[in-house]
Amino acid sequence: MTLESIECGESGSSLLSHHTCLDEDSEGKFPELRWTAPPTGEVKEYALICEDLDLPIPYLVIHHGFFFNIPPSTTTACHTDIVHQEANVNAHVTNSGWVYIPNLKGTSYIGAAPPLGHGPHRYVFTIIALDSPLNLSSHDKVTKEQMKDAMIGKVMGWGQWTGVFERPWTEYA
Name one Pfam family in it (predicted). Predict the structure, then answer.
């Protein structure tokens, strides 16, 4: 499988400012992504993950977005897809009907915002094709670990794209 950013270019490219804390709302938008289906088998559901691998705390990875229940006919993602559906107050559901696991801010997605002067951070986006649904509820407090456990034996393939962003001290001095 391949995963690419329509806006940013090949994996390892810089995220655009509107994908980061430099955006006008200081939150950052989800980059436009496009993926291919695995070469064999019938996809029943996709999961999509975004994680920052370069935190200043060793062995800690922060998830910026964790989505599942993505229909098998879907091959793109953009910011409007991942925004919380306001009508579903008690459920973690996006405008596109995807289910999300709230991040540290309790939202569906956090844009790139590494600590000042910490150097480049890699934001890894992973699309995962599943051969059967995860059957996790949008009303339950599903954890990242429960989602990963539910994927065991169901993964058909995956693709990754990495966006890079840093905030040097010199830009804020």
Answer: PBP
